[in-house]
Each structure stands twice: as structure tokens, then as C-alpha cells.
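Ex. 9. Protein: CobQ/CobB/MinD/ParA nucleotide binding domain-containing protein.
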Amino acid sequence: MTFGHYWIIFARRWPLLLLCVLLMGVGALVVSLCMTPVYRSSVLLQVAIHSGTNQSDINDLLASNQLVQTEAQLAVCDPVLQEVAGRYPGLTASQLRKMVSSSVKLNTQLFEITVQDTDAHRAALLADDLARTFIRHQEHDRQQENQASQQQLQQEINSTLRQINALKAQRASDATKGQPDTSSEQLTALQQHYNQWQSALAQLELSEAQRGGFLLIAQPAQVASTPVQPDIVLNTVAGLAVGLLAGLALILLLAHVDQHVHSCEELQRILSWPVLALTWLERTTDALIQPARHTANEDAYRILRSSIGFAGVDKPLRSLMVTSALPGEGKSTVAANLAIFMALAGKRTLLIDADLLCPTLHEKFALPADKPGLSNAILACSLPDFQAQPSRVFHTVVDPRSISLDGYIHPAGIPNLRVMSSGPLPPNPAELLESRAMQRFFQALDCCDAEIVIFDTSPLLGLSESIVLSTKVDGTIVVADLNRVHKPHLQQMRSRFAQAGSRVIGCVVNKYPRRGGLLRVSLYARYRPLEKLRDDPRNSATVRQPHAVPLR
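Predicted C-alpha cells for CobQ/CobB/MinD/ParA nucleotide binding domain-containing protein:
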């Protein structure tokens, strides 16, 4: 399918698409309004690095964000959450864990702790409480670590001092005894170690004094004035988008399972036959177009007549069959009106009611039901001398050229148009149409002076009469009422014609409902083309004749 086909599908079902969009959009809006609002508060913390720290460590920390990321993760660890949750009745650490998150500000020493709660004031309190509790935990841990380092340094200093005192006592004892001094170098080394430990301890104490707070609250949490959830605008837009997608999917699904035919283009795509003409659905009960009265379907039958003429450029179409897939699609009306417009064009036209199951042409042209017709004519072609002995059963085949069909052809009250009704309905229409007598009947038609013969046949599906007759005529016209026929019917009809090898010149879309944009039909009524003037019986001298020229 092309883009144009999809556009037609969506344009035909746009109310369904609009309904889906509105339902989903309004539904998302209503749900959002019914949801409990959630507020968000964030506290911003800074990881402070002082100059007292080792310079190489500072460079390492500044080169990466590992320290800030570590502190951000520790800020929402279980010890902090448990302590904070214990200060709020009805709040557990697991509940608080779902409400809290932390994130790092890239390329900075900042990170934030975010709390979402249905109470805006409590969200701000929780965020600040978490920050203060985390800072206190970190300060406590740092102080313990610093005290442990000082204790270790003090132990080293005391141990070194004891060694120095012991070595000095040993030197004094050796000097008293007059022994040589051999521990001067060792004493010097111990004194150097002692000085180093003293310097490290002093540096640690100075760093601790200058360091102050390692974590600082850069920006305390603020009470949110508007909720972050639900986002009514975003949810509504998302609902509209989902409704649009759902509507498109639903339309495509319906188009896939829909068996109706909605347009002439779709009909032509299914049948692979051209659409010769399109007739509008008329509100009047008069099915036939009267030459003296102008209707909107006049142009349609003129187009149909011209299309048939174009189809017979290489090989003239002298015999045509009009059929449909199902009953009630208006094939008899189309056949009758086509015959009328063929006659108005000056062609000697013979309209034959070949629907031997449910004939209707005698009613349309006000002919008596007991008039002899097609079945009588076929029977005549099987008798040796019908005019002399109409009741004898034939024993020898007669020459079809010697058979006159005038007794079965009746005037229709329109110049150049004659009608042959169905005649008595036979019990076996299919066998009658397949008989040799039917072949001789066609030979007899060739001898009459009709320029074009139009057969109105029974519906195709479920019956065999039409498919039999379609192989004997020059061309077949299919009438389709898009309000009745479905895709499987059309596909089955196309398959049957293809199997029989029948020549289908095209189809006529009948009873097409008038929709928007069809006002042009009424506008055309102001113009009187030359062809319409020619077809108008008021401008034709032959119309004033009481009877038309009889067919030979």
C-alpha cells in the first residue's frame, strides 16, 4: 500500500483517531489530577579541601571526582537513614530510602541530597536533617581517625624517647667504667626519629586545628511551592501522544480486518478492472432516467457510454452483459439506463432480460408479464419452423438466419430502444443458456439490425447462469454497490471470471452516497452541453414519433 492509501484510510476514520486522542488525553489529565502531589527538596553540600592537606593528595583529588562521588553515596547509607528515620514517627529507614537520592555535580566539589515527599515542609526538613546527620557522622569518623593517628604518633614518640633515655643511661655507665663510647651514632639516629615524630604530631595537630569542617552545607533545602509529581502538562501530552499512537494502530487493525470496500480506488485495486463510471445514490423511487427529466446521474451514464466506446476501439463491443456479485446492487437499473443512453446516442439498442431467476426489466418498462421473451426465443431456435408450428419439438436444425425475433422484442417508448423480457421462467436456466439453441439464438441476434445488445443477467455468486453467458458476449460490465458487496465477494467474482476466461471491460460503482465536496453535481445543472442537448428528446425530431423504428 502506498502513502495515499494510508492517507485515505486515516482520513476515512479520523473521528476514531480523534476519539482515541481525546480519551487518552482526558484520562491522563483526570488521573493526574487525582494523584497525590509529591514535593521535592534538595540540600547542596560541598566537600572542602584545605591547604593543610598534603599537596600531592590535593592534586589527586582535584584531578578526579572520586571523593565527591564517595561522599554522595555515603550520604544516603543505612546508618544515616536509620538515625534520621528514628526522629520522625511513622517513618522507617526502608521508606526513607525510597524517598531519598543523591547526585554529584560534575566537575565540582558539590553534591546534593534530594528528598521527595507528599509533605513539602517535611521534605525540606528531611533533606536538611540528612545533611546535618551525615556531616556529624563524617566529623565523628574523622575525629576518631585523627585521634587514632595522634595516639599512634604519641606511642612512637614515647617509645623513641625511652630508647634515647636508655641509651643515654648506658653511655653514662660506660663512661664511669672508662669504656669507649660506641652508641653515639645510634643516639643521633634515635634523636632524629624523635624529632620527626614530634614534627609529624605537631603537623597533625595544626592541620586538625586549621581544617575545620570537611563537609559544608552550601545551600540548605527550600520548601517547594509546586509539586514535581504528577506533572499534569507532561502527563496530558503523553496521554495525547499515546492516544494518537493507539488510534493509528486501531485504525490500521480495523482496516486490516474490515471487509467493506470504501472507495472506487480500493475497488479497482481489488478487482484490477477499471472503474468505468460512478452513479450517485438517488432518493427518488424512479430507477430509470427519463430523457425529458435531468438528474445527477446523466453524466455518469454518458461517461459509461464513452468508456464502453473506448474499450471497443480495436474490437467493437456488440454484445454486453451486465451483472453483479450479489442481488440488490442495481445491475438491472444500470443495464436499463445504459441501454437508454445508448439509444439516445442514436444506436439501435436491444436490452435483453437474461435473469431467468428473478427478472425485473418488464416491470421497469411496464411490459406485461406474459409477453414472450428470451426463453421463448431460445426455444424457437430449437424448433424446425417456429412460426408455422410453434408447438412441435424440433427434429432438424433450422438456419438461424431464417428465424425472426420480432415477436419477442417489444418497444420501450424510447427511440432506438427495444426490450426483450425474460419470458416464462424455465426450471433449468443454466442448461438453457448452455444449450445449442442459445448458440443459434446468438446467431439470430447477429442477423437483426441491433447495433448493440445488452444482457441483464442474474447475480454471479452462487449461480452459474451469468458465468455461462459471460463467455458468449463480447464484454462484461460488473455493477458494484459498495454498501453491500464485501472484499471476499469481489475476490471470488474475479476468480470465477478468470477461470472462465471472460472479458470484463470494467465495473460501475452504483448507489454511491453523496458526501461533502459533491456540490459540483448540482452546479453542472446550469450548463447544457451539446451532447445533452442532442440527447434531450425536446430537441430531437424522432421523439415526436409515436413508435420507434422496429428492429428487423
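Check your answer against this statement. The chain has 20 helices and twelve strands.
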